[in-house]
Amino acid sequence: MAGGVQIKHLQDGVVAGRLGAAKTRDNFQDIHPPLSGHEALVASDRCYFCYDAPCVTACPTAIDIPLFIRQIAAGNTNGAANTIFDQNILGGMCARVCPTETLCEQACVREEAEGKPVKIGLLQRFATDQAMAEEKQFYSRAKPSGKSVAVVGAGPAGLACAHRLAMHGHAVTIYEARKKPGGLNEFGIAAYKAVDNFAQSEVDYVTAIGGIAFSYGKRLGRNISIAKLQADHDAVFLGVGLDDVNGLGLKGVDHPNVVDAVEFIANLRQAKNKSKIAVGRNIVVIGGGLTAIDAAVQVKLLGAESVTICYRRGQAQMNASRFEQDLATQRGVVIRTWMQPKKLTMSKGELSGIQLEYTEQAKGKLAGTGQTAKLVADQVFLAIGQSLRAEDLVADNPALALDKGRIKTDAAGQTSLADVWAGGDCTNSGDDLTVTAVAQGRDAAMSIHAALTGQGDL
Predict the structure, then answer these.
(1) What pLDDT does 11 receive?
(2) Second label for 181, Cα 20 to 30 Å away, from 111, 334, 351, 390?
(3) Which residues form the domain of 44?
């Protein structure tokens, strides 16, 4: 069975509408339904309200987790939201997409003692959702400072930076390559993790403070430059994310049924009718990160019969957490490790399969064994990582220091260029997490504010 439909009735080839609109819509419901008021009180009652709580240390944005949970327990839900937003203005999305199982909840004392942590993520969502539904704003814009800041990228890092700067009266213009804000939150996560257009609702909530303008269709290195932004603004923040996709280097990768998983996820998130997205019957996903998991699960939800993730290293080395791996296998996705792609096979011009070589760790390095296996596939998804298109940045800015292909920053987010800061995945301290990007955008804003005004304390 797949989504309640007999597999034998599914069409062959890459087609749309395998399950129909109604079933597809059901398959893409919220993966973690929100807590009711009673459930939130029960969940909050399990917190020990630890002094020097390890969950706070484990949170990249350092939210005072025991405090906001105590506020929920006391019936002060908006107070809890205020505590969360004080550190993480995108706390609503982070409550949905953070790998809490490896961050705050893994560090929870209840997890250590009982193997069952406090539901920190769901409690955070409970508080932030209520405040956003009530359009409850906790911050107002300060008197205009007369300073302007360019923020490049309308993703988590850029939005967090812009909000904190706007709080302090600076005028912010966000330059965004796409025609819609949100970045990773809007285009890069599984559709079932943020339903009901939540990403855009959060953008509206964040920018309601005022003083933030958008300029769309502006790509750094193409139709805007760092030098021009420096000339037009008092400071610049780069939150451009990772805008390039790593290549596979095999003959046939330009076949239409060899799909960029990042682009697939973006298109699926923007589709009003997801059943119109065409998927194959037998699918192989190459990669071991969250993008691979999100692509694999979603093609399964669209009606694919066989979905296999192939990763060149072992399960323990996969970037996707064990929770995400389990999520995939629970939905019928097969995960095969120690396999790397060697050849795409064709039949009469159509993709028919993929040949993979078994790998091993030899003398500390990954090596092929020479043994191969072939998997039937009418569609192959590539989720083999993203990178920064660094040449677009350094062409006109040779003084911009890079570190392993990403922008080098100091602890405050300042780059090697005067009056230019950066944060999020594009930097050498990024780890491809929304919550880390938010923290870096917020902290860079604090540094920018101090530089513009001489005030060291926000």
Answers:
(1) 61
(2) 390
(3) 37-133
